[in-house]
């Protein structure tokens, strides 16, 4: 009997590195980025329906049609002709507007759940292509990769050997940042760097990741929100081996060496501190009857 319901943990991500390229003929900035999943995750379920298309969440997600998880289900239905309807239930744990890929994680999780339940599943390549139409983070979140190098709009992924798990501190500011705003600031104030060496992604691990950690959006976001720089400093002072803003912000992350105890972090007023770990693998969908 085919499953009619599927649950999954939709894991967050950080961008260990994010390089912004010149605008292309479509007016968008291609990216070069190192994606790494975290254990921090939203909890999501998808139930197949014949007469309803909805998303249920205690958090205010706005209109269903504007939600990436709902859009993912719609895209899958258009691509495959199945299902007629669905009910998505979402328990949010990943902060929104944070650069942690929460909405993209939910979208990728919905695609993976539906494909697991589908009478005729599509290939991993087609599923990732569906994700690429939804946003630059969604292909990675749709993949089975815990660690990957992404090019273009995130759709060209190279799987990399997942590094050993490390403890991660996430400092969540009192403000969120819209991705569109961060890129607009970059266009106004940032410079596309052409002086950097090509990526050396051979044998990438914690011993040599430090020099790769950079984010081209961090400096321009810090002009509008200088607190970001302070957050990075706090994490480094606490013993983080690497620390930076993730994605378009606003969260800053710090990754701590194995076997060390972080110093106390003085969390600024109005900020939150979330402890998690880098992920060892991608959580699999769990279909139910």
- Uncertain spans: none
Class inferred from helices and paired strands: alpha+beta
Note the run of SSEs as H and E: EEEHEHHHEEEHHEHHEEEE
Sheet of most strands? 8 strands, mixed
The geometry reads as: globular
Average pLDDT value? 93
Number of alpha- plus pi-helical segments: 8
Percent of sequence in beta strands: 25-35%
Question: Which bin fits the share of residues in helices?
Answer: 25-40%
Tell me the Rg in angstroms: 19 Å
What's the quaternary structure here?
single chain
- The beta-strand count equals 12
Distance between the termini: 7 Å
Quick recap:
By secondary structure, the protein is of the alpha+beta class. The protein has helices spanning 68-80, 102-117, 124-132, 138-142, 179-189, 206-209, 218-224, 227-237, and strands at residues 5-20, 31-49, 53-57, 85-91, 147-152, 156-159, 167-172, 214-215, 242-245, 252-256, 272-277, 286-288. It is globular, with a radius of gyration of 19 Å.
């Amino acid at each position: 009997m085919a499953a009619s319901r599927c649950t999954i943990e939709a894991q967050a991500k950080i961008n260990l590195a994010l390089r912004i390229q010149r605008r292309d003929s479509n007016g968008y900035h291609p990216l070069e980025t190192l994606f790494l999943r975290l254990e921090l995750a939203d909890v999501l379920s998808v139930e197949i329906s014949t007469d309803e298309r909805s998303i249920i969440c205690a958090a205010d997600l706005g209109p269903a049609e504007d939600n990436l998880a709902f859009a993912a289900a719609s895209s899958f239905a258009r691509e495959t002709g199945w299902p007629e309807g669905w009910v998505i239930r979402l328990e949010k744990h990943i902060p929104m507007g944070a650069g942690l890929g929460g909405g993209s994680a939910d979208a990728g999780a919905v695609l993976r759940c539906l494909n697991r339940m589908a009478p005729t599943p599509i290939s991993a390549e087609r599923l990732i292509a569906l994700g690429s139409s939804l946003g630059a983070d969604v292909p990675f979140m749709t993949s089975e990769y815990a660690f990957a190098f992404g090019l273009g709009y995130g759709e060209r992924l190279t799987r990399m050997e997942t590094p050993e798990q490390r403890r991660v501190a996430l400092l969540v500011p009192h403000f969120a940042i819209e991705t569109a705003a961060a890129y607009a600031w970059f266009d106004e104030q940032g410079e596309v760097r052409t002086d950097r060496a090509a990526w050396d992604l051979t044998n990438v691990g914690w011993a040599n990741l430090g020099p790769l950690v950079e984010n081209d959006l961090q400096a321009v976001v810090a002009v509008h929100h200088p607190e970001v720089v302070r957050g990075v400093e706090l994490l480094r002072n606490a013993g983080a081996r690497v620390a930076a803003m993730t994605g378009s912000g606003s969260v800053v992350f710090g990754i701590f060496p194995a076997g060390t105890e972080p110093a106390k972090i003085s969390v600024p007023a109005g900020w939150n501190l979330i402890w998690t770990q880098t992920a060892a693998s991608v959580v699999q969908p769990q279909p139910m009857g």
